[in-house]
Q: What sequence folds into this?
């Protein structure tokens, strides 16, 4: 048996699924293809040629290495293949992006044959994915007087790799496809349940929306062959929930353009739109692929004679349609005037925000990576030649508001800005390159991040990155065949790339499936840090963190940089006193509710929430920052008191030390360096040299929200409102209700305490409630299942030491066992307590799920359709979100509780408390560490 015959078997199996041959990344298989190509009598020769030319992945894959070396042989005349002339070999090399292909091109360009060197140089001038090893060779050759190297560097200094690309078309014709009404989550574009297939782009593409939608899109493409299909969220925002590179990949696969004729299923330039625009993190992902994201504004508030919004019986503004975008509508996008036009040329709306100079560059270059690497390459070439680089790229947008103080995010960006003149102070609206301090990759997007790193020819994590971590939390609950196939391979690659990994590729330390956000919260050891993570809930309570697509994560890992605008900020402060019977989660929900009451519209969307929450330690403050993803904020920043921040940093140090003690330290010493950085930051705060981050008193905010704690008397529930007559109001996080709204009549089919929204205190609350109810009633009976998943192993270990784990285990009908992990997802639940493995569990919806039609009450973040729940033929699935005590009590009762039942159940229990800064001594801390 050979690898090739195994590949043929795989091809036959995929054919039965309606799939093409899988793109090849294995160098050993390519070596067999090459041997068969060289054998002119081989029966498989023609097919081998096709697979080599059209089905081999580029970048740093081992397959690309074999292909590049073979093409070099052809160019040098060492191998003769009639179908691949030297000219065609150069063309193929030009589409391989970097790594082995650039190495081969440099070999040829810096060689002795003048004609070959000139041809290779012409191809090199089109390439941008060069790394230090490549630029060092060019620099050395130039210093040695090599004329070809000088020619290449002069081209790079002029950025001809960019300037010689065709400009973006002035007019783009589109035909609309309304994917859904209301907010469209990225789960519709790339369901979490199909996460295992994301790296197989063709297979994963089959999960976009539905088969009927895919068929309709294809029909539109046939009817309008000269137009692009534009995917629309009617009466909503496109791409809420997560960045989801796989969602953009799927949209591009069905509606975009092929990036290269020699790389299958990699498309770019999708066009997406929403009545209320595009979710900020999803819009970043659209930019990665050189796509267009439009804010349609096609539904507007109906106004009375005085210009005030007319409200319906529910108090919501009445909307009226400004223009139609129903499926099949032909529109025109003018990229010069930045207008959206009707088919007849009538102006419909301004879309300038989609066509900033920076975004236009992404569109011209086919994505943001080429621009990031191109700028670095131009800078290198100019410095090597000793010349000033001509202004080719749009200059960084630098806005300085003279005489105006800075918000917290403005201070962080200024502190980490790259390429900004010394002494220049940037304000919101500036677009700038920044240093990234901490980067996190999670396991369902990780395989795509690996592909992106390979495609951009990256070999090792940037030395400027302080901390980088690869988690295993999203696939922690079920060690099924898919996880077994994907996870070890992912961990091996990332560990070799330089990341600390949740699982040890060598099997020397216990697999840590801790929730990535919790780990990143500990790895962030400065309030001045910038964090990038492959998940929308990358929202740290120290520094400023941005959820990102797998590609942006790859870029941050490879370069230690990111480019983004400085967002506007909304200031959130608190007044009053938190009632004893409430949990801090209720304050979080009330913040969103009161914000909408104070401002009418969601002022958080697309902005940074600067929350003045200084008396809460990082673990509990994370509950607020985590939720800001559902508030549609771009990021959040906690303003902490000095002593609280010091204690949070000491806690982070202890967690990092535990990772070291468990054997997780990387050979590059990353974790120890983080400990050293934490010590240095603590010393700065204690000495007064650099206190905890605070905004200036005269900072300018887009809006301010004051949360009145006195106005919160009941536990709050975020409701998907699945039966709202207005479809666009369903599955949003804007419906926040008091528990009494449900009159103790809302049946609960399943309770879930877990996800990144909980901390150790939540686990202790579960234990305390069981102890109290057992003492009062003799035993505890569950009328609905309760799934409990601690976010980290540290929490489990501490609960065992403190005696809380014993009662949890005693009431548990299932307790996770790492020696014998589950290999199949649970499909049915009994009315018992399930103690699940640390990790994301039900929150992800890619492994464990509730039964169709269930009403789930959970501590997690996701309430949209298709995540935790799904509809049955009889009933819509509902995922309501609440605090830990509400969830536990509801599972015991099998329904939502009354306020009186709730108060009785939590009496004497240490709930997560919060007091506004300055209203109490600064030494006040929250209840749980």
A:
């Amino acid at each position: 048996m050979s690898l090739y015959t195994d590949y043929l078997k795989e091809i036959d199996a995929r054919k039965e699924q309606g799939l093409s041959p899988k793109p090849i990344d294995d160098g050993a298989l390519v070596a067999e293809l090459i041997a068969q190509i060289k054998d002119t009598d081989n029966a498989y020769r023609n097919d081998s040629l096709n697979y080599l030319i059209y089905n081999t992945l580029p970048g740093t894959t081992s397959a690309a290495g074999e292909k590049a070396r073979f093409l070099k042989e052809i160019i040098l005349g060492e191998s003769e293949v009639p179908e691949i002339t030297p000219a065609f070999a150069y063309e193929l090399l030009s589409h391989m992006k970097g790594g082995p292909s650039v190495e081969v091109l440099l070999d040829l360009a810096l060689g002795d044959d003048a004609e070959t060197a000139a041809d290779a140089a012409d191809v090199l001038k089109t390439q941008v994915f060069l790394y230090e090893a490549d630029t060092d060779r060019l620099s050395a050759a130039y210093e040695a007087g090599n004329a070809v190297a000088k020619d290449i560097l002069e081209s790079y200094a002029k950025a001809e790799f960019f300037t010689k690309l065709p400009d973006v078309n002035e007019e783009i014709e589109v035909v609309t496809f309304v994917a859904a009404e209301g907010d469209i989550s990225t789960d519709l574009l790339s369901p979490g349940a199909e996460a295992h297939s994301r790296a197989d782009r063709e297979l994963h593409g089959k999960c976009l929306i539905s088969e009927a939608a895919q068929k309709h899109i294809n029909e539109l493409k046939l009817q309008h062959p000269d137009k692009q299909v534009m995917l629309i969220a009617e009466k909503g925002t496109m791409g809420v929930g997560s960045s989801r590179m796989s969602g953009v990949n799927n949209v591009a696969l069905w509606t975009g353009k092929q990036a290269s004729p020699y790389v299958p299923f990699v498309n770019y330039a999708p066009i997406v739109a929403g009545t209320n625009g595009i979710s900020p993190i999803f819009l970043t992902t659209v930019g990665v692929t050189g796509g267009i994201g439009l804010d349609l504004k096609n539904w507007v508030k109906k106004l009375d004679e005085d210009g005030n919004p007319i409200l319906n019986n529910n108090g919501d503004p009445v909307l009226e349609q400004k223009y139609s975008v129903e499926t099949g509508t032909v529109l025109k996008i003018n990229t010069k005037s930045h207008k959206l036009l009707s088919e007849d040329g009538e102006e419909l709306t301004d879309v300038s925000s989609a066509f900033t100079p920076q975004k236009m560059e992404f569109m011209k270059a086919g994505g943001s990576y080429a621009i990031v690497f191109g700028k670095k390459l131009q800078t290198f070439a100019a410095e090597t030649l000793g010349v000033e680089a001509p202004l080719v790229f749009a200059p960084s947008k630098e806005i300085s508001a003279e005489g105006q103080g800075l918000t917290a995010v403005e201070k962080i960006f200024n502190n980490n800005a790259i390429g900004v003149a010394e002494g220049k102070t940037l304000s919101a609206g500036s677009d700038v390159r920044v240093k990234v301090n901490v980067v996190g990759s999670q396991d369902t997007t990780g395989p795509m991040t690996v592909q992106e790193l390979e495609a951009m020819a990256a070999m090792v994590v940037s030395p400027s990155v302080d901390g980088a971590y690869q988690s295993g939390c999203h696939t922690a609950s079920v060690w099924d065949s898919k996880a077994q196939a994907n996870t070890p391979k992912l961990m091996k690659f990332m560990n070799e790339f330089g990341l600390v990994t949740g699982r040890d590729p060598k099997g020397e330390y216990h697999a840590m499936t801790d929730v990535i956000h919790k780990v990143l919260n500990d790895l962030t050891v400065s309030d001045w840090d910038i964090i990038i993570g492959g998940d929308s809930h990358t929202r740290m309570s120290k520094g400023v963190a941005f959820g990102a697509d797998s590609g942006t994560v790859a870029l941050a890992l490879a370069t230690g940089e990111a480019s983004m605008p400085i967002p506007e900020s909304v200031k959130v402060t608190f007044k009053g006193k938190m009632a004893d019977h409430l949990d801090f989660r209720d304050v979080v929900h009330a913040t969103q509710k009161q914000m909408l009451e104070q401002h009418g519209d969601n002022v958080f969307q697309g902005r940074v929430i600067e929350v003045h929450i200084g008396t809460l330690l990082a673990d509990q403050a994370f509950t607020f920052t985590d939720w800001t993803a559902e508030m549609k904020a771009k990021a959040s920043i906690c303003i902490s008191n000095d002593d609280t921040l010091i204690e949070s940093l000491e806690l982070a140090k202890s967690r990092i030390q535990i990772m070291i003690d468990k054997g997780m330290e990387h050979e590059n010493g990353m974790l120890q360096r983080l400990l050293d950085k934490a010590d240095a930051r603590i010393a700065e705060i204690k000495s007064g040299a650099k206190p905890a981050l605070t905004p200036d008193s005269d900072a300018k905010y887009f809006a301010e929200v004051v949360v009145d704690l006195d106005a919160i008397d009941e536990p709050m529930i975020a409701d998907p409102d699945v039966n709202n007559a207005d479809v666009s109001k369903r599955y949003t996080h804007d419906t926040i209700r008091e528990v009494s709204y449900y009159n103790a009549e809302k049946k609960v089919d399943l309770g879930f305490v877990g996800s990144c929204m909980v901390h150790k205190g939540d686990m202790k609350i579960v234990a305390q409630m069981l102890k109290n109810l057992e003492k009062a009633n003799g035993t505890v009976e569950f009328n609905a299942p309760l799934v409990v998943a601690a976010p980290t192993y540290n929490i489990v270990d501490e609960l065992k030491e403190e005696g809380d784990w014993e009662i949890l285990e005693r009431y548990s009908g299932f307790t996770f066992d790492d020696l014998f992990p589950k290999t199949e997802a649970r499909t049915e639940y009994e009315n018992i307590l399930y103690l699940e493995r640390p990790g994301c569990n039900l929150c992800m919806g890619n492994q464990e799920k509730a039964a169709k039609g269930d009403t789930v009450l959970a501590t997690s973040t996701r309430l949209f359709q298709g995540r935790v729940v799904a509809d049955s033929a009889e009933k819509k699935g509902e995922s309501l979100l609440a605090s830990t005590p509400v969830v536990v009590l509801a599972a015991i009762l099998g329904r939502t509780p009354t306020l009186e039942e709730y108060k009785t159940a939590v009496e004497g229990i240490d709930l997560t408390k919060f007091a506004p800064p300055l209203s109490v001594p600064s030494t006040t801390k929250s209840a749980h560490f």
